[in-house]
Every structure is written in C-alpha cells, then in structure tokens.
Q: What sequence folds into this?
C-alpha cells in the first residue's frame, strides 16, 4: 500500500486513493539443488521457493469508507495450477447444488490502525422531474422505514449525473444485448438460452472497469448513470454495473431485481437477484466478477439485503432478519416486504417513463489497437521481470511460452461459458514436464491501465527465485469485446530442469 498523493490524509484525498490490498496465499517448499559426486553423500543443498496459489483483492477505498470488513472471502485460485492437483469434491454435495463450488475460502477481519477519520455523510437534496406526489411519498416511505430499521439504507430515489432525483425503477427496462456469441436478441425466446447466456452477460458487465463514486465525485454523493452513459464513460460503480446486468436479464424475460445490501468486500453494495420458478432459493449475481451464488451458500459475499427493485415497484425488507440465508423473498407478503406502491398509493395515478434509452449502440473494438496493447503489455512485463530479478539472470523458455500463448486464446471463452477442458494446458506442456518441473498459472482481469496489470503480476512474486538455474514462460492475450471492453489474460510459469539421481 502507498500513502495518499502528496501525503494528504484529508478525507476527500483518501476516498480518491485507488490502491488495492492484495492478500496472497503461497506454498512454501524446499527445492533440492544439484550436488557434485563428492558432496552427494555428505552435503544437502536446498533453496526455499514460494509458489503462488491464489489471492483476495480489496480496494483500499472500501476499507476506508467502511472502517472494517469481515467475512468469508472467496480465494481466487487459477484453474489449473500447473504443478498442483485440485482435490475432487464429494459428488453427492455437487448434485445438491448446481452453483459452482469455490475451492477455498479465507475467513478474514480487515481494518486500519489507527482508524482514519471517516468521510462525511452527504445529505442528498436535489431538483427533480418526478411528480411532487411521488417525492412526498418517497420521503415519508423512507422516514417510516428508517425509524424501525435505522441501520438499513433504504431509498426510493437516487441522483442522476445532472443532479436530479430519479425514481429507481425508471433506471430499469429491457435493453438489447451486446454482440456476443450466443447472445443474439432472439435468445430471449429461444429454449436453449438461459444459464449460459446469463453467465456470458455477467462476464461482459464485470469486465467494465470499476470506479467508485467516491473517486469520480469525491464528497458529493451517489451518482447513477443510465446504461448508455455508463457504456460511453466505460467506468462506473456497482450501481451502474447492476443496472446494466439487470436490464440484460430483463431482455431474457428473467425474474430479476436490483438488490441493495451489504457485502463483505465493499460494505453497502448493489447487485442483481434472480429467481426462477424451479429454484428453491434466489441467486445473487456479483457484478464485480460475474460470479453467482445461492442465497443459501455460506460463501455468498452478501451479508444483508434490505431493498429490492424492478421496473414496476420497490420493496423494503421489514423482516427482523436481513441475512440472505435466513430471509424470505416472497415480496407479495406485506408483513415481510413493504412495497412502495400499495393500496394507499397506487402506481396507476402516476405517469412516468424509463430514463433508459430504447436502444444501445455498441461500437466494435479495433483489432489493431488490441494487438498493439497486447504487445505493449508483454514487453512491459518482460522488462519488469528482468528488473525484479536483478542481480539474477532471467532466461525464457520460448517453446513453452509459444504453447501457453495458444492455450490463452481459448481461456476467455471457457471462462464465460464454463465449458472447455481445464487440463488442456497440462496436455500442451506434457513434453516439457518429462524434463522439467513446471509450476504456473493463468491470471485474468479487466483492462483499465497497464500499471494495474503490472501490480497483479508483481503480487504473485513469480520472479522471486534466487537462482539462475530456472527458466520462465510469459504469455499475454487480450480478448476484445464491443466498446473497447477488454479481458486481459496472462500466463506465468517457471521451469526447473529435473535432476537425475
């Protein structure tokens, strides 16, 4: 972690800090070093090596704004990890839950010492084009809810980029899909769409860079952009990501809501909740990584849910419980969920339309620009590796590197659909494993800037092997989506020649 710019610990400066806290897990092991014939029976030579296994990333701004974060954090473990075998899960456990089971979870408590002065809470008061009747009802609705549950951040209106208060359901409407494989507009009516299309769309949305409102609009308030504005600026908070993903799901005719609650990663958050008629419990869709989890899953990062909204209404959770696994999600039960529109204040009396456009134009991403960026990132990482390893020599295993480059081109499709053979890398490098011990892993991240990529690679400490008897392989691939949305894939590996006894 770095200190704030210019050593300024003012609240507005701290909120703009973009640093990320990396919690990395390593496997420390002893590596035998070669000995001479004379030394073989009397001398044992070893060096300590640390192999990176996975990580958890938490933006500093999330820790600062919340003061403390606590929960069971899903460890991001690459698949596969060359040189390691993943323990197989019990088959009966897999059959009882269709969600993907995480390999590892870290129970953590994160805070700062000393506690820094928290940012000031801004009371939002804006002009609005909403009817006076709706605004008065919204104020009264929120005030009554806050009297009973003061710890829940209920809201009915939010601010748009023009500083006007907008009724939340006006941000929600079906929107056309981006031109992705398997997500044509007729997917909404095809019987073969569904889960795979949802995961592709969730992946697309998660690749749009995150930029907290505390950084974009420090000291102001929460600002909500429409989906076309969001895709134009190419950066936004979780609200923009959740609204866009929800609008895609509405296009699929899914029963979908914007949900507000508390996450172990960011504190107050916005995400998407879906519920199929055949599902026992709803699904929470994280907009930061595109992962989905059942409300019953113990590793679900959502700690509480207090608000649901769709294009028709808003519902406030008035249950004593707000933990997803202990809640009821029957919004028709007015003893558990208080609707914004009810018999005393009906929607029929109001005339309003969505602030979202009816159509979205997606710009194609230029292949030449992508290839140029891919080459630039590779050259930067290669030079950084050499710099980080000084005074040791950095040698590259070009044949292995070429194989990994070919594998990386398939990883994005496998990641977004869940299809593909995770062992394809093992097969590609099998011939090298006959003569070398190989350890390696793929990294993937949305592209925001080159320094973020460098920081992610640096955090793995792949270069920290104090020996010249080792070779490295580095491959970089960028998968492009419309509107210059990019998925960066990097493969890192080191190869040590096997010693013969």
A:
């Amino acid at each position: 972690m770095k200190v704030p710019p210019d050593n300024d610990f003012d609240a507005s400066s701290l909120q703009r800090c973009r640093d990320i806290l990396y919690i990395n897990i390593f496997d420390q092991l002893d590596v035998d070093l070669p000995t001479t014939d004379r030394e073989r029976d009397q001398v044992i030579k070893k060096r300590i090596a640390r192999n990176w296994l996975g990580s958890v990333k938490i933006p500093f701004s999330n820790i600062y704004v919340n003061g403390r974060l606590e929960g069971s954090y899903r460890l991001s473990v690459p698949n596969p990890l060359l040189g390691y075998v993943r323990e197989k899960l019990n088959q009966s456990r897999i059959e009882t839950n269709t969600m993907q089971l995480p390999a590892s979870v870290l129970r953590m408590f994160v805070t700062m010492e000393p506690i820094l002065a928290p940012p000031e809470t801004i009371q939002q008061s804006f002009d609005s084009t909403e009817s006076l009747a709706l605004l008065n009802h919204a104020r009264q609705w929120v005030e009554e809810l806050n009297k009973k549950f003061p710890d829940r951040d209920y809201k009915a209106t939010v601010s748009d980029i023009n500083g006007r208060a907008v009724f939340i359901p006006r941000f929600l409407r079906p929107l056309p899909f981006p031109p992705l494989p398997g997500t044509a507009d007729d997917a909404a009516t095809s019987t073969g769409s569904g889960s795979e299309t949802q995961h592709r769309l969730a992946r697309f949305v998660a690749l749009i860079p995150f930029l907290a409102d505390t950084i974009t609009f420090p000291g102001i308030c929460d600002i909500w952009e429409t989906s076309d504005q969001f895709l134009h600026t190419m950066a936004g908070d979780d609200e923009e990501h959740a609204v866009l993903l929800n609008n895609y799901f509405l296009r699929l005719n899914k029963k979908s809501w914007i949900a507000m609650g508390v996450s172990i990663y960011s504190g107050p958050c916005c995400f998407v909740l879906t519920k199929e008629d055949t599902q026992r419990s709803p699904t929470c869709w994280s907009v930061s990584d595109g992962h989905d989890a059942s409300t019953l899953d113990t590793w679900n990062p959502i700690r509480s849910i207090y608000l649901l909204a769709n294009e028709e209404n808003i519902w406030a959770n008035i249950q004593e419980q707000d933990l997803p696994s202990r809640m009821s999600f029957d919004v028709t039960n007015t003893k558990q969920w208080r609707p914004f529109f009810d018999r005393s204040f009906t929607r029929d009396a109001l005339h309003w339309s969505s602030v979202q456009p009816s159509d979205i134009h997606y710009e194609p991403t230029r292949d030449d620009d992508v290839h140029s960026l891919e080459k630039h990132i590779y050259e930067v990482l290669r030079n950084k590796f050499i710099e980080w390893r000084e005074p040791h020599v950095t040698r590259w295993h070009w044949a292995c590197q070429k194989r990994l480059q070919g594998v990386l081109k398939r990883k994005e499709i496998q990641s977004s659909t869940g299809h593909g053979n995770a062992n394809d890398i093992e097969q590609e490098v099998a011939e090298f494993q006959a003569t070398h011990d190989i350890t390696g892993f793929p990294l993937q991240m949305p592209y925001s800037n080159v320094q973020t990529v460098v920081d992610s690679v640096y955090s793995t400490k792949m270069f920290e092997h104090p020996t010249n008897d080792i070779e490295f392989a580095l491959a970089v691939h960028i998968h492009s989506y419309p509107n210059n949305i990019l998925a960066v894939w990097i493969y890192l590996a080191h190869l040590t020649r096997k010693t013969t006894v």
User: Anything to note?
Assistant: Residues 304 and 322 are 5 Å apart (CA to CA). The two ends are 45 Å apart (CA to CA). Residues 367-389 form the longest helix (23 residues).
